[in-house]
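A reminder from the course coordinator: this example appears on the midterm review sheet, so study it carefully.

Given structure:
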């Protein structure tokens, strides 16, 4: 879902400061980065407008983690969706619960694309930072546990290596999507 939303990213008619925001966070010792942007993916939440139920073609989207209230060994992941696009695309909206057994979400942004490039911890989070707009690439690593934990007696027969799944995605943004501020189509 994160990959689908990022592949539909929309940067038009917005300053580079409002393209992508990545915050480097750690909760309970787990990587729990947050990511915000505007996407052309249809909204998942139905919005009521003049007694009609509608969906938006452009939405403010974000991904957040929080501690799992039932188990302190995991985090929960939520997708934030704001109907349409307003002046502050990184705030507000509704939160949709996605999964409750998350072991980490690590997101890295890169200024340039290449094997020797170093990641940037935060992107678009600082007011006057040079790291704004779209990065050259984003690498996402999401670690989930699919099955409940087993008691020690069951560990010997359980397929332990199949419980934890790591999703890793690399999304590259082409140069035409990363123009200078004065060349952004309005």
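Designed residues:
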């Amino acid at each position: 879902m994160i990959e689908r939303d990022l592949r539909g990213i929309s940067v038009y008619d917005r300053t580079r400061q409002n393209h992508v925001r990545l915050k480097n966070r750690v909760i309970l010792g787990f990587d729990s980065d947050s990511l915000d942007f505007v996407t052309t993916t249809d909204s998942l939440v139905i919005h009521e407008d003049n007694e009609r139920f509608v969906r938006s073609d452009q939405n403010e989207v974000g991904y957040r983690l929080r501690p799992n209230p039932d188990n302190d060994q995991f985090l929960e992941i939520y997708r934030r969706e704001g109907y349409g696009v307003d002046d502050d695309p990184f705030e507000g909206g509704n939160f949709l619960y996605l999964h409750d057994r998350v072991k980490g979400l690590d997101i890295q942004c890169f200024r340039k694309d290449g094997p020797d490039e170093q990641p940037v911890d935060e992107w678009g989070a600082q007011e006057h930072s040079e790291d704004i707009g779209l990065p050259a690439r984003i690498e996402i690593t999401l670690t989930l546990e699919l099955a409940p934990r087993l008691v020690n007696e069951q560990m010997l027969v359980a397929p332990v290596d199949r419980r934890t799944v790591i999703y890793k995605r690399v999304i590259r943004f082409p140069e035409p999507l990363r123009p200078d501020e004065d060349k952004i189509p309005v």
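The radius of gyration is 18 Å. The CA atoms of residues 20 and 37 lie 5 Å apart.
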